[in-house]
Amino acid sequence: MKTYVLTLSQVFPKNHSRKGESTGFATNKKKIHTIRGSYALWKKRFETIDRGEGMLAIRQWSGKPYVSPQVEVANLFREDGIGIQKIEFDPAVHSCKIDGREHLVEESVAANDGLSYNDFKEWFKGDDDFEPMVVIHFTKFRYI
């Protein structure tokens, strides 16, 4: 079985005004998804997961990223309801399109990512000029 590792940030990154503060992602029950780049890559990975030939390993760095060991948070399989959706931000980052449908970031997307709207906006500042990103769902929830 193929394992796809997804590492959650333990602290806010150095380019964020809350740098070094805990994100609480690993224990935040409200964080039901994460948003990443490389939609095409994750689409291929989830095709493997959907066939029952792969799993998603959610981990967190125990200390400094890329230097410290990773701590396992969860292992998720297709039976857990995991999945993906394509997300595209508009330049203002007040709204986004998820699978082509408009959603207001402050209403649900930021909260479901485990962030306040302001933290979300700052975290993804500049990501509106890139290729489509991916929402990786940890539950059966999907945006409709």
Describe the 3D structure.
By secondary structure, the protein is an alpha+beta fold. The chain has one domain. It is 19% helix and 32% strand. The protein has helices at 39-50, 105-112, 117-123, and strands at 2-8, 33-36, 54-61, 70-76, 83-89, 95-98, 101-104, 133-137. The strands form 2 sheets. Strands 2-8-5-6-7 form a 5-stranded antiparallel beta sheet. Strands 1-3-4 form a 3-stranded mixed beta sheet. A hairpin with an 8-residue loop joins strand 3 (54-61) and strand 4.
Short description:
With 144 residues, this protein is of the alpha+beta class. It has one domain. Helices cover 19% and strands 32% of the residues.
Q: What is the beta-strand fraction? A: 25-35%
Shape assignment: globular
Domain count: the total is 1
- Alpha carbon gyration radius: 15 Å
Helix content: 10-25%
- pLDDT average, as an integer? 91
Main-sheet strand order equals 2-8-5-6-7
Write the element-wise H/E pattern from the N-terminal end onward: EEHEEEEEHHE
Structural class designation: alpha+beta
Number of H/I helices: 3
- Head-to-tail CA distance between termini: 31 Å
Low-confidence stretches: none
Largest sheet: 5 strands, antiparallel
